[in-house]
Amino acid sequence: VKLGCLISGRGSNLQALIDACADPTFPAEIALVLSNKPGVMGLERAVKAGIPTQVISHKDFDGRPAFDAALDQTLRAAGVEIVCLAGFMRLLTPEFVTSWGDKILNIHPSLLPAFKGLDTHQRAIDSGARFAGCTVHIVRPAMDEGPILVQAAVPILDGDTEDSLAARILTAEHKAYPEAVRLLASGKVTVEGLRCRIDAPTD
Ligand code: GRF
Predict the structure, then answer these.
(1) Nearest CA owner, ligand 1 atom 14
(2) How remote is the CA of residue 202 from the centroid of ligand 1, in Å?
(3) CA-only gyration radius of the chain, Å
(4) Looking at the predicted structure, is the pLDDT value of residue 202 above 90?
(5) For residue 49, is pLDDT > 80?
(6) Topology annotation, domain 2-198
(7) Distance separating alpha carbons of residues 186 and 28, to the nearest angstrom
(8) Pair 92, 70: CB distance under 8 Å
(9) Which of 51, 64, 140, 197 could pair with 46 as two cysteines, CB 3.0-4.6 Å apart?
């Protein structure tokens, strides 16, 4: 199954997917890495792994629909079957999201549906919660919403700062994203409303 990864920056989750795809038993490969920002570290990671890259800057387009149409065209031309948002900092239009059905994944650094949006780590600490975590979900038009595929929880410790919590969650993200891609790419996921059912292995 061919993946298209959309990034805007550091690309550590992209790296986790690159590493997962190096395993011959992993059911997916990255066909294209697309960034809306030039010169970001994620692009370097892709080049190093021999993966085709492309920069499509949102600044070159007159509005979201035109930008998303360019993304869509590029992804489809590369034969992409599953789109992975990996630190992609642009909202996608409902038209784009709907046209890909259940084939767009996003990773978010909170236990959704808590703490959608930005600044999630500090908000989790300030809430007094004892656990935080990450979520990989199928993308729906509303931000950070959609059927949840994989979650991982980590403790919030006394004395945690935004940075220490973010680092603990990031380690969990790097396991959760490949796991979610593996499930979706191997056709084991059935979506029922907001719930994902994972088929039991048959062998
Ligand atoms: C991650 O924390 C991810 O959950 C969020 O943006 C960050 C991207 O980090 N959506 P990276 O670019 O994958 O290192």
Answers:
(1) 12
(2) 34
(3) 17
(4) no
(5) yes
(6) Rossmann fold (3.40.50)
(7) 8
(8) no
(9) 51
Q: Which atom of ligand 1 is nearest to the CA of 42?
A: 12
What does the DSSP 8-state code read for residue 100?
T
Cα of 13 from ligand 1 centre, angstroms: 6
**Ligand 1 pocket, Cβ-based, cut-off 6 angstroms:** 9-14, 42, 86-87, 107-109, 170, 173
103 neighbors 81 (Cβ within 8 angstroms):
yes
For residue 86, give the ligand 1 atom closest to its CA. 13
pLDDT in tens, 118-160: 999 999 999 999 999 999 999 999 999 999 999 999 999 999 9
What the block records as the tokens of 84 is: 């992975």
Q: Which two tokens stand for residue 174?
A: 């790097």
154 Cα to the center of ligand 1, angstroms: 16
